[in-house]
Amino acid sequence: MTHLMRRYFNGTVSAVDLGAKISRNKTPYFLTEDDIVASVDTAIGEFTDTLRRPFNSDTLPKIKGFITNIGLPYATLNKNGSLDRLSLKLFQGYVVDYFAKGVPLSQISISTDSVTSVLPLSQQKRDEAYYNVLNKAADKFMADGWLADNEQRMIESYTSSLGIALNCLPMQYQSESLCRIGQAIVLKDLQRGILPQKPLTVPVMLSRDEAPLWIYDNVTMLQEKITREYVGGSRGMSYRICKGLTYRTGSFKGHPVERSFMDTIGVGQLVITNKNLFFHCPTASVKIPYKKLVGVTPYADGLEVHKEEAKPKRTVFQGFDAWFVMNVLNQVNI
After folding, report:
1. What is the pTM of this model?
2. Cα 213 to Cα 331: distance, rounded to the nearest angstrom
3. Could you say which of 102, 142, 268, 329 is the most buried, measured as most Cβ atoms within 10 Å of its Cβ?
């Protein structure tokens, strides 16, 4: 049966003959539904592996004829996700043409709609395809370490058409190249005095003319804590006056010793705006105005900020690359 399906995809068996032979052989060969689905998974998997861009014009009609003549419901045929994988490859292949060939998104939408009319794809899977293509384009564009103006225009057109915010990506799609592209776009706009046009939903209260530029998730905030204790000894004599009462003479000589340690405040979101740093977690919310900063020390996995205050304490944010924040501080008018 698997061989018969292979012959259909290489063009030596028609769709009608495929359906007739499967139907005719079910009973005498005791073919169960699971047997047919297993053969479908194998044949569809092999066909999916052979597909290369640009796709032939008969690809979708061939798939439609196959699904129609197998004799089982679509959901049953797709029980193991083989049709989803085929649909995703076709869908993503058409989307790639926007970056690879400059095909307009309006035309790509027509092609992807034709795919989903034959091979239904959930919105989650469609988003997966959009983000996968964007990730590949990001890797290509950032290979030279910088984003050209025409590359930026392509990215911005793509993201605005699909409603994608680069400065608030889902965690599973936050590739290094894609984050760098989003940050490069923000920094270029800041150089021209332009704030992000697409508002972000942030868990903090912003002031007038304040715009969120980027949001980091899973950031750990640590703050210096100082403890003080006295160490030393005493000299003198103790005299027992009566039962339960002792009188002591002499003096205590000691000195205070301060010890500091970095205390974890919590794990939450670090919001970068054009005016402030905000840290928000379930147990704390902290606002650090750029005007109050007297120094910033970048690390490989975060940064340490030094504020102007009577008793300054070290404050560290850990869990992200500080490159973007340092560039923001160089661009904003503090």
Report:
1. 0.70
2. 12
3. 268
